Structures are given as C-alpha cells and as structure tokens.
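Practice problem 4.
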C-alpha cells in the first residue's frame, strides 16, 4: 500500500515575510545595479566606444537604441520565465535571473571596442544587452510575487514595495559607482575606466545567489499546488480569464517611460553642448533622487494599504506628467540648483507614488496560478515600449537634441494610459490573498476549499 505524500506547508514560518522582502530588495538592488549602470554608460561612454564618434548625434542615437534593445527582449523572456515560474515556483526564477544578469553584465565589461574589431563590437554589445533584458523580464515579477504571497494580511503593499525600493537602491549604487569613474580623464574613461563597474557584477551574482537560495516557496503557491495543482499552460489560462487585466498592466507599465527618460535622455540632454552641465553634477541629481525614493516608496505603499492602490497610483501617474515637464524645463535653464530640486521632486517623490504601488497593484489583479505570468508578460510588453521611449525622445528632440518641451509632451502622453488603467481597475487592497484574481463562481468554490 502506498503512503500519500504529505501536503506542502501552506503557512509561512515566522519571519519569512521579512526574509522574502529583504531578498527581493537586495536581489533587485543588485540586479538593477547592472541594468541601470548600462543606462549611464549608454548616455556618456558607449557613443564614443562602440559607435562612430565622428558623428556624435548619430552615435548617441544608436547607443540609446541599444538601451531599448533589452526592453524588446523582455516580452520573450516574460513568456518563458512566467510559464516556468507558475509551474515550478517563484524561487527558481529569482535565482536564475540574478545569475544571468550578473554574467551578461560582466561580459559587457570584457567586450572589444569599435576601434579593435569594427562593426562586430556593437553586435556583441546588443547580444549581451538581450541577455540582460531576458533576465530583467523575470526579476521584478518573481520578486514581487514572492513578497506578495508571503506578506501578512493588510500589508501586501508595504512588503511588495521592497522590490521597487530595491530597484531604486540598485540605481543609486550604480550612480554612485559611476560618479568617480566619470571624473577620470577622457582617455582613461574610454579605455578601461568604464569597464570596472561592469566587472563588479561578479560579486552581484555571488551575493544574490547566497541570499535567494535560502528562501522558501510561498504559502500561496504551495496551497495552489496541493489543492488544485499547477496549470499546464499558464498563458492559456491567463488569456482566457485575465485578458483585461493583462491589458491594464501593459497600459500601466508605460509609467516606466518616466524612469527611462529621466535616467537616460535627460542625462544626455543636460550634459550636451546645448546645456553644458557637468557629468558628475547631473549624476548627483539621480543619486539624490533615488535616495529620496528609497524612503518615499515604502511610505506610498503603506498609504496604499490604508486608502487603496488606485488613488496612490493615479496620483503618481498624473503627477509625473507635470513633474517631468518641470524637471526638463529646469535643465533647459542651465540652473543646477533648480535642476537638482525639481529632479528630486519629480523622480524621488512624485514618480515614487506609482513606482512603489505597482507591484501590489498589478500582482493583485491575478490569481496565484497565473500571477507570475500575468505580471511578467503585462509589465514587460509595457516596459518594452518604455525602453524605446528614450530613442523616440532623442528623435523628437530635433537635430540639436534640445527641444525639451516636445519630450515633456511625449512623456505626459505616455502617462495617460497608466492613469486610465488605474481608473478602470478594481480596488483589491482588502481582498484575501487566496481570493485575488478569482471571479464570482470560482471564488465561492475556492473559498470553500480554502476553508476546508
């Protein structure tokens, strides 16, 4: 007679929510250190290293386009990693994405330049960038799903916000590492200096692996596997039961355009001949804005646990349209104090409202059986558009690259779909975790099984 295997535990051990949130924070910080480091290099170094420096405008445009390549690869990675994460668990994806990001970023630091191998150099750069994009496709979705499903009742917003505050932490670290590198003499910066931050990603992969390998799988996923089993084709279930939510997440994810334009295009514009601010001073704007965001993100998330996801997210979307216009105008004046102030307000405070709430806001739209797929696919399609927003902004800015008002209007237009997504979504902050994403009849059946 066979003995049935015991059902997996469905309650989180004491302290596990904090462990999951900490792993999400540290892992996301390390992961996005790699990812945002590329943004700084694409704006300041790569046009001269990998592209034809005799045509600076075209070289900058092509360099910024490689920044968007990773976003184009993200939807493909989301399809695969979302499927695996909903079938095998969140933990495996969190470990895989971290290792892949660390490896691909290290390889960027080893690439030959255009002067050494000609046109092969940008091709190799794009290949490494694609690997970065595949990695990033599963990172935030798996980390936020892990945090959400471990979080205690009434605090999902706060615990899932660690994923995004970790992202801001990674961007802050990348900026602080790049500031002394950017101060090197031009010949040293372009020969070896820019490579050092990329080589540090080896430590990123090792530390992240040690942290994440000790995590337990979430109670919600274990309960799903024990009671109903995992679905064979999460994508089919997702499109059948949650197609409208996927569209909302795609629309909402366009809010990331604020981040890419702030991080990459505004940096290139501020340091161009049209404005003339120094590289180091503009990098400090990003560093201080991210420092403020580290505090603002969990505070906005805690507010969403009290008043709901929708109003906080809506404020972040609408407010970012106005705040970014103010920031780009400040850059155009050439006033560094004004640029610093409005940069911190726009990115550190206002944008953080949407940025800190979206992990809970998006994740709560989906049932456990398809949550990772839903968040990954929806966000990565939206992020793909947001990634190329930098390239579009460079084109919209005109031949001189200094039409900031056109870029401000473009950014504001990209904030409209996220606002619509917030207005049409259901409020989910008070819905029990096991009932998230469930519909009428299925919800009643699900509640009976959970109670039993």
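Answer key:
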């Amino acid at each position: 007679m066979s003995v049935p295997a015991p059902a997996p535990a469905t309650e989180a051990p004491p302290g596990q929510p904090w462990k999951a949130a900490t792993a999400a924070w540290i892992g996301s910080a390390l992961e996005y250190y790699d990812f945002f480091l590329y943004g700084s290099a694409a704006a300041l170094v790569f046009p001269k290293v990998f592209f034809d420096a005799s045509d600076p405008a075209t070289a900058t445009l092509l360099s910024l386009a490689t920044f968007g390549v990773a976003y184009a690869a993200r939807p493909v990675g989301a399809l695969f990693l979302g499927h695996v994460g909903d079938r095998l668990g969140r933990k495996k994806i969190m470990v895989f994405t971290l290792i892949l990001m660390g490896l691909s970023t290290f390889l960027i630091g080893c690439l030959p330049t255009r002067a050494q191998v000609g046109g092969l150099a940008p091709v190799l750069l794009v290949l490494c960038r694609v690997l970065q994009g595949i990695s990033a496709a599963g990172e935030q979705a798996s980390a936020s799903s892990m945090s959400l499903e471990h979080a205690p009742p009434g605090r999902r917003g706060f615990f899932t916000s660690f994923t995004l505050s970790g992202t801001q932490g990674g961007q802050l670290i990348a900026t602080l590492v790049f500031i002394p590198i950017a101060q090197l003499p031009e010949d040293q910066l372009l020969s070896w200096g820019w490579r050092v931050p990329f080589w540090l990603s080896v430590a990123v992969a090792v530390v992240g692996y040690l942290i994440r390998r000790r995590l337990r799988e979430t109670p919600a996923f274990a309960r799903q596997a024990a009671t109903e089993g995992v679905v064979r084709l999460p994508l089919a279930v997702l499109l059948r039961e949650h197609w409208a939510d996927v569209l909302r997440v795609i629309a909402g994810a366009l809010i990331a355009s604020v981040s890419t334009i702030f991080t990459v295009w505004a940096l290139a514009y501020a340091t161009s001949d049209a404005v003339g601010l120094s590289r180091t001073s503009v990098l400090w704007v990003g560093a201080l804005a991210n420092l403020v965001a580290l505090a603002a993100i969990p505070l906005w998330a805690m507010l969403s646990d009290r008043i709901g996801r929708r109003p906080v997210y809506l404020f972040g979307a609408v407010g970012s349209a106005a705040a970014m216009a103010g920031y780009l105008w400040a850059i155009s004046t050439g006033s560094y104090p004004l640029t610093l102030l409005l940069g911190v307000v726009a990115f550190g405070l206002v944008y953080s409202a949407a940025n800190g709430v979206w992990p809970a806001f998006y994740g709560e739209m989906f049932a456990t059986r398809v949550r990772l797929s839903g968040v990954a696919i929806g966000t990565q399609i939206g992020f793909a558009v947001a990634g190329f927003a930098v390239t579009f902004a460079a084109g919209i800015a005109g031949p001189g690259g200094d039409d900031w008002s056109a870029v401000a209007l473009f950014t504001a237009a990209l904030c409209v779909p996220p606002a619509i997504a917030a207005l049409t979504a259901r409020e989910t902050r008070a819905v029990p975790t096991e009932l998230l994403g469930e519909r009428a009849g299925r919800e009643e059946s699900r509640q009976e099984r959970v109670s039993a």
